[in-house]
Amino acid sequence: MADAPLMAGKSVLVTGGTGGIGKATAIGLAALGARVGITGRDPARTEAAAAGIRAAAGSPAIDAFAADLSVQAGVRRLAAQVLETYPRLDVLVNNAGGFWAHRHVTADGLEHTFALNHLAPFLLTHLLRDRLDGGRVVTTASDAHQSGRLALDDLQSERSYSAMRVYGTSKLCNILFTRQLAARAPELRANCFHPGVVRTGFGKNEMGMWKVLTTVAGPFFRTPARGARSLVWLARSDEAAGLTGDYVVDEKVQAPSAQARDDDLAAGLWERSAELVGLAADAPTGGTA
């Protein structure tokens, strides 16, 4: 009798799964036998992406969830749908993210990059806590975190706004969140990773240096599948099962920046984030929204 697929019987949620790294991850894990849910903002595009993943992975077990994760109501609606759909969630992939050349504010009155790239995974992970007991949480960070500068008294970048700095700060937040999650919820395996510079549609609607760079140098960037390799490794490998609170580059643990290793800063970010999403800061991973 043939061996069962590596991820058979496992359930995975991939945010930002309609393209790029997220879609490549969904294909890779579905091909290994997992039931995979993907999220996207646009319902039609999300359904179309799910159909493409089914065809590419040769698996019908792909669920599509339409959700705007930049607003907290959207995160809460998604969490409710996921809780209704999956009796257990083995892997949560916090991958959705964005980059904006100019400062925008969400319907919640929060700076857009911080709200989507950090607060959304912070809140979603908390709301799915009961389904993740003993599971893995993988968050897409970036080496861009080294250009970030986190000021707890200016999380909304009201004093000044530089697109690359704010994006880097949001990726710094991803690493600090991962470290705090691992410390506060030791039964989980919480890790983050740098995918490399990947050829995707990231930032395609924004003007400026990043758009020029991606146009000129795009052919030399990594493919989404290559960018997703560490993510898939963290989600499914036996070797990665022993890791938690780590930052991974090309399937190897690396030390992030000194600020990303500041546990006092991580604790402060956790407390401020809990306040902003209406959760109890002293709860390990739970709370009431």
Quick overview of this protein structure:
This protein has 289 residues and is α/β, with parallel strands linked by helices. The chain has one domain: Rossmann fold.
**Global structural class:** alpha/beta
- Specify the CATH class: Alpha Beta
Q: Give the name of the CATH architecture.
A: 3-Layer(aba) Sandwich
Tally the helices: what do you get? 9
Order of helices and strands: EHEHEHEHEHEHHHEEH
Q: If you compute it from the alpha carbons, what radius of gyration comes out, rounded to the nearest whole angstrom?
A: 18 Å
Uncertain runs with pLDDT below 50, 5 residues or more? 212-218, 285-289
Mean pLDDT: 90
Q: Helix coverage percent of residues?
A: 25-40%
Please state roughly what percent of the residues sit in beta strands, choosing from under 5%, 5-15%, 15-25%, 25-35%, 35-45% or over 45%. Answer: 5-15%
Largest sheet: 8 strands, mixed
Spatial sequence of strands, sheet with the most strands: 3-2-1-4-5-6-7-8
Please report the distance between the alpha carbons of the first and last residues: 48 Å
The total tally of domains equals: 1
Q: Care to count the β-strands? A: 8
CATH topology: Rossmann fold
The CATH homology group name: NAD(P)-binding Rossmann-like Domain
Overall body shape: globular
